[in-house]
Write a structure and sequence with these properties.
Blueprint: E1 2-3, E2 6-7, E3 9-10, H1 20-26, E4 31-36, E5 39-51, E6 78-83, E7 87-93, E8 102-112, H2 114-121, H3 133-139, E9 157-161, E10 170-172, E11 186-188, H4 199-202
Antiparallel strand pairs: 1-2, 3-9, 4-5, 4-9, 5-8, 5-11, 6-7, 7-8, 10-11
This protein binds a DNA duplex (13 and 13 nucleotides) through residues 49, 51, 57-59, 62, 65-67, 81-87, 89, 91, 104, 106, 132-135, 138, 174-178, 198-199.
Length: 203
DNA sequence: TCGCGGATGAACT
DNA sequence: GTTCATCCGCGAG
């Protein structure tokens, strides 16, 4: 499939690692594609975080509830929730069915549908379109309607690969949590201006 | 570049 | 009533 000059192949269920850290690393350099009536937008993933089974910082730590149910679906489903009453977060379920875990998509490098992202975000600044998980969701118009969809089959939200060879990601602690805060479970492209977080964290 | 506080809604004690 | 996997604007350094 051609999207603004990029040749993109949809990632199918069998393409995705069935383990949370492996998936968090695998997704660096891959694409998020969002099709909507207004147009298609796409970005390259430059930052992820892993939320493991038995992880005190994870939403699944308390067990399965109506909210976190998509995290217990087999890997490759979207878990979308509202944080702080203002920001939607996009996660990808990351283990076999029945095991609750996920990967948070924290930042994208905008590649296609950039004007649409500017309108949705209310800013012209390329660097601010999808730097941070709330911005990712706003730029791609992701909200509760996409909670639970299967990313390997959904027509409006999916993961893609354009053959880009990503460098080995750098690793740090996760952002914005207090429990299990020391664990090295954030993965990012060192040197990318599209990555969130402070300079110290990304150096 | 950084750190702070307010906005805002859902889930849980 | 408290706790958030955040963003934005502002002021200090």
């Amino acid at each position: 499939l051609k999207i603004e000059g990029f040749s993109v192949r949809r990632l199918r269920h069998r393409d995705l690692p069935e383990e949370t850290v492996a998936l968090a690393r695998f997704l660096i350099g891959k694409l998020v594609v969002r099709r909507a009536p207004e147009g298609t937008a796409m970005g390259r993933i430059v930052e992820t975080e892993a939320y493991l089974p038995y992880d005190a910082a994870a939403h699944t730590f308390i067990g399965e509830t109506p909210r976190n149910r998509p995290l217990f679906l087999r890997h490759g489903h979207a878990y979308v929730y509202l944080a702080y009453g203002t920001s939607w977060m996009l996660n990808v379920s990351s283990e076999k069915a029945g095991v609750g875990a996920g990967v948070l998509i924290r930042a994208l490098e905008p590649l296609a549908g950039i004007q649409l992202m500017r309108e949705r975000r209310g800013t012209e600044k390329l660097l601010d379109l999808a730097r941070g998980p709330g911005r990712v969701a706003q730029a791609l118009a992701i909200d509760r309607r996409l909670d639970g969809v299967d990313l390997s089959t959904d027509p409006n939200l999916w993961l893609g690969d354009d053959g880009f060879a990503a460098a080995e990601p750098s690793i740090s602690v996760r952002i914005g949590i207090t429990k299990d805060a020391h664990r090295p479970l954030r993965f990012f492209v060192r040197g990318s201006r599209f990555v969130s977080g402070t300079k110290a964290l990304n150096g």
